[in-house]
Amino acid sequence: MHGNAKTIATVLCAIFLSFSSLCSAQNDAERSSQESLSRFIDAVNSNNPAAQKDYIRTHYLPGFLAAYPVEMHYATLSRLFAEQGKLELPSFSQPEFSDNVFHASAVVHSDKTELWTEITLYFANKHPTQITGVRVRNADFKSVPIRTKINTNRQLKREIRSLTKRLEDKGLFSGTILIANGSKALFVDSVGFSNKRYKIKNTRTTKYNLGSMNKMFTAVALMQLIEQGKISLDDTIEKFIDSSWLAPEIAQNIKVKHLLSHTSGLGSYFNEAYENSPKDHYRSISDYKPLVRSETLKFNPGTQYHYSNTGMLLAGVLVEKISGQDYFDYVQQHVYAPAQMVNSASFELDDPIPNLATGYFPNPMNKTQWKENTYRIPVRGCPAGGGYSTVDDLHQFAQALLANQLLSEANTEKLFKVHDNLGAHGYGFGFEVDDTAETTIVGHSGRFDGISANLDIFTKNGYIVVLLSNQSAGIAPLRQVTRALIHRLGTPQ
Question: What does the alpha-carbon distance between residue 376 and residue 7 come to, in Å, rounded to a whole number?
């Protein structure tokens, strides 16, 4: 017994030493990765091209450095400073290890833009201080470090009002925000100008361009026809879309569910032909045919996710073919009307529509520092985007969805579910989906020159947030912080 105990003790000691060595190695790697993140951020904050290029040559692994010219690596650092200014580094995340590589992240804050950014550096195990990859993206709301404790809706309103004012003062946000819980609007605020030329202020009734948010309305419309048994999610689209739209050998492989989930393999009609064409040409869906008919597949439908404006445009074509109505008339009668969305439509921009916001994007070469997007966007929106709405109409839309007034509960749930079996991620049928154990957010965003829009529906605690802006990237900090605050607030008080 004594011998066995000694053997066991020896084995346990060996295991402990091995574990200690592993922990020590991981601790060393963690310290090295944090030091590397700090050096990376110092290099960005230096705003010195020579110093930034010297940092890259010194700290990037030779293979990574050789993969792209130094100027491309440098562009990542210089663009980050140009967009965000000086970065503050309040926190690191725990490094993650795999067999051949590990990565570490830091969430940094920009005082210039109020945006939180996640910077991730990748390292090879044998070179824990040398970088093999860099990723920069807006920080997920769950990782945003909120310093203020939020317990009530009053505190939520105070924090968002303060942020909105700071963004307005910096010229970063022009638009309207609405925060509601169920049918009750808790907070509505408008800042900036809907038309800078004539100094017309944004208001609660301003109609903003939604960009891609129209995809939600198209998905609801098509799902209504599915609910009526006029078409199936598993139908292939060549039954309804002829060769003037898409080659038959392509259409016969694409199913309705692929269009709605961005797993069709199709791309975007925002191509060179679109850029070189007059934008007042696009008034009906059929006007988009020349931009679409030469599309090819990037992959076999139903195997991968690739965001596709062409796919959702064709979903609108299906609505027309199956309903026998003009797409815009169908959506007006079967989506907007039952949801009591009285200020929403795909307006033709050469009609004198009241309260319509003009979009603006930065232009440093112009003495006003801004450029109107009038000649960048189609004269009329389409099933993939470009319609107009107000914060109150989108609040009505969210309530109608949740009350199953537009679709049955089962089909509404299909919109809000990520269909992993199709290769989709972060997207259901026409709706973006952010799903965690604590918080589920469904809705859609919209982005283009002079357009920044978002609808968030918090399905577990009843909050609804509408953000509409007539400036490029105007809502990013508000969307991020509002999500973080509501996530922490939980059940309304």
Answer: 77
How far CA 323 is from CA of 228, 248, 316, 329, 397, in Å, comes to: 11, 22, 11, 10, 21
User: Computed over its alpha carbons, how large is the radius of gyration of the chain?
Assistant: 26
User: Identity (one letter) of the amino acid at 38?
Assistant: S
DSSP letter assigned to residue 368: T
Reading the block at residue 450, the tokens are 């002079």
* Whole-prediction pTM: 0.91
Contact 360, 469 (CB under 8 A): no
How far CA 160 is from CA of 153, 280, 380, 416, 484, in Å, comes to 11, 38, 33, 27, 11
- How many other C-beta atoms can be found within 10 angstroms of the C-beta atom of residue 19? 10
Tell me, rounded to whole angstroms, the distance of Cα 138 from its chain centroid.
Answer: 10
Contact 231, 320 (CB under 8 A): no
Q: How confident is the model at residue 406 (pLDDT cuts 50, 70, 90)?
A: very high
Q: What is the pLDDT of residues 146-201, one digit of tens each?
A: 877 888 999 999 999 999 999 999 999 999 999 999 999 999 999 999 999 999 99
Residue 49 and residue 169: Cα distance in Å, rounded? 30
- Whether residue 18 is predicted with pLDDT greater than 70 in this model: the reply is no
Name which of 109, 103, 114 is nearest 30 in CA terms: 103
CA atoms within 13 A on the CB side of 381: 29
The residue type at 9? A
Average pLDDT of the residues in 296-306: 97
| 42-49, Cβ contacts within 8 angstroms, sequence gap of 24 or more | 43/77, 44/77, 44/80, 44/81, 44/87, 45/81, 45/86, 45/87, 47/78, 47/81, 49/74, 49/78
What pLDDT, on the 0 to 100 scale, is given for residue 126? 65
For the four alpha carbons of 238, 239, 242 and 245, in that order, the dihedral sign comes to negative
What average pLDDT does the segment 445-450 reach? 97
Phi-psi category of residue 62: left, alpha or beta, with phi > 0 → left and psi -120 to 50 → alpha: alpha
SS3 of 170, please? coil
**pLDDT tens per residue, range 195-205:** 999 999 999 99
Instruction: Answer yes or no: is pLDDT of 9 > 60.
Output: no
Task: Give the chain's mean pLDDT.
Answer: 91
Taking the C-alpha atoms of residue 82 and residue 84, their distance in angstroms, rounded to an integer, is 6
pLDDT of residue 92: 76
**Residues 266/311, Cβ–Cβ less than 8 Å:** yes
